[in-house]
Design brief:
The chain is about 50% helix and about 20% strand. With about 500 residues, the chain is of the alpha+beta class.
């Protein structure tokens, strides 16, 4: 083998190796981006599920509290309760309990178990779920947590779930407040019913009251995901509908170290894990009882068996193999492609005589413009014109002069159009100007400008040249396709000719 051939092989192999290395890193990055996007879609999906379910409960809470706020008799009772002596207060409190019972019954039907009424200073005067417990304050004193300092609820109120607050006004003044809440466990059960996943929630230790942790009932136990988070015991003991508790325990064990830093960031994220030859995607969504940023108390977690994640590997290797084939083809044909590409584009899209775009390019450009019109609701107009008595010019002065007139008119068009306008030679002596962002009035004004420019131009050997024009604006309801718009403009053009030529006519 000659040195020249060895050199060629070496160069070919070197280029191939470089491109193959680039290809590998590119598709590796592409794979990671796809996975990241997929995980983001999982987060968005969980957020949508959570928000839709939470909004359903919120609508019911709003309905009940709005009804209470519109009951004059209830508001009067609360006002009297606030200003009466203790003996009278007990009587009024019982009356108030009876009036609110039907609303509380409705809430309980949909598993709202908490309905509390309290004064603006935080003092509770009625708990529907604990009518015997009142007179205490919801405001926290001397808390070490900034979250609690800025939030008018005791720490042991937070663990109940999502909290909704409403104000009651009487005679234009704030009279009292209502607090309802739905537990995260109830929310989780509702999510499981509605969507194709299993759910769990974990709370930070600092948002669970010390009395709850000390109780012998063990309402909360430490999670196997992270020692700083706790499960509600009754929640994790329930049977799962899709992913078993045993599988979830295995998943948590595998991802425990992997997600430790992510949990501390308090941001939404997702992870994939393979358990018993099956892939699962675990999605973490930050939760807050007050639905406010930076007040995250834990995570809502979804566990979902996933048949999509493993496809990313097969797509990656498929892309690598296909990419290698393409690289080889590119190395063989690259010079030929580069040389021929520009030439073919020029031939395919340009009129040789005038240098304007041709009919093929017109359909390509107008298709894109019509898509923009439909998306952004912006106007689009079209001007079509031809040269008056062009056949007579050819017959009288010859085809060379006819070609000269065509090229000159093309130059006149180029000098008078705006940046966004595009001229085309439609065929023979016919031309089209496409005017985006222009309604029928603007296009008509522009068409008149073109007509005058041609009429006033001093052509060599030809005494005078004029054009007749038709103008139409694209109408989505009327123009079912591109040809419909052209036909309307063309009809206007022929009307200009019938009316004596050298004029502009607007389409119907």
């Amino acid at each position: 083998m000659s040195k020249k051939n060895i050199l060629k092989i070496f160069i070919f192999f070197s280029i191939y190796s470089i491109f193959n290395l680039i290809l590998f890193f590119y598709f590796q990055q592409d794979k990671e981006n796809r996975i990241e996007l997929y995980f983001q879609q999982k987060v968005d999906k969980l957020f949508s599920e959570y928000r839709a379910t939470q909004n359903g409960f919120k609508m019911l809470s709003n309905f009940v509290c709005d009804n209470i706020n519109n009951r004059e008799d209830i508001l009067q009772l609360i006002y009297k309760l606030k200003t009466s002596d203790n003996r009278t207060k007990n009587i009024l409190r019982k009356k108030l309990f009876k009036k609110l019972k039907k609303y509380y019954t409705l809430l309980k039907k949909y598993r709202f178990y908490y309905l509390t009424l309290y004064y603006p200073n935080g003092k509770v005067f009625l708990r529907m779920h604990q009518p015997y417990k009142y007179g205490d304050s919801l405001y926290t004193k001397n808390s070490s947590l900034d979250f609690i300092k800025n939030t008018p609820f005791l720490i042991n109120e937070i663990e109940t779930g999502i909290i909704y607050n409403y104000q009651l006004f009487y005679k234009g003044k704030l009279l009292a407040l209502i607090k309802t809440s739905i537990s995260y466990d109830v929310l989780k059960q509702e999510l499981t019913k509605l969507f194709n996943s299993d759910y769990e929630y974990i709370l930070k230790r600092e948002f669970i009251s010390k009395s709850t942790l000390r109780t012998g009932h063990k309402l909360f136990i430490q999670s196997d995901i992270n020692e700083k988070f706790f499960y509600e015991e009754t929640s994790i003991k329930r049977d799962r509908s899709r992913v078993t508790n045993q599988t979830i325990n295995k998943i948590n064990l595998v991802i425990k170290d992997r997600i430790k830093d992510k949990l501390s960031l308090e941001k939404n994220f997702a992870e994939a894990v393979k358990i018993d030859e099956k892939y699962y995607v675990v999605t973490f969504l930050t939760i807050s009882p007050f639905q406010k940023k930076n007040y995250n108390i834990g995570y809502l977690i979804s566990y979902e068996q996933d048949n999509t994640y493993e496809i990313f590997d097969s797509v990656f290797w498929h892309n690598i193999i296909l990419g290698n084939i393409i690289i080889i083809l590119i190395l063989i044909f690259i010079f030929y492609v580069l040389q021929m590409n520009e030439k073919l584009k020029l031939i395919a899209s340009t009129d040789k005589l005038t240098g304007l775009f041709n009919r093929n390019k017109f359909y390509e450009i107008i298709s894109n413009e019509i898509e923009r019109v439909k998306r952004y609701k912006r106007p689009l107009s079209l001007i079509i014109f031809d040269i008056d008595h062009f056949k007579k010019i050819n017959d009288t002065f010859g085809h060379n002069i006819g070609d000269y007139v065509l090229k000159t008119i093309a130059e006149i068009i180029k000098k008078n159009i705006r940046i966004n306008d595009t001229p085309f030679r439609w065929g023979g002596e016919e031309f089209i100007v496409l005017t985006p962002e222009t309604d029928i009035n603007g296009a008509t004004t522009f068409a008149e400008k073109l007509r005058e420019a041609v009429e006033n131009y001093k052509f060599d050997k030809v005494v005078k040249v004029t054009i007749s024009l038709g103008v139409a604006e694209y109408d989505p309801k009327r123009d079912k396709d591109i040809d419909s718009l052209i036909n309307r403009a063309d009809e206007a053009l022929y009307k200009s000719k019938e009316l004596g030529r050298n004029r502009v006519t607007i389409a119907d």
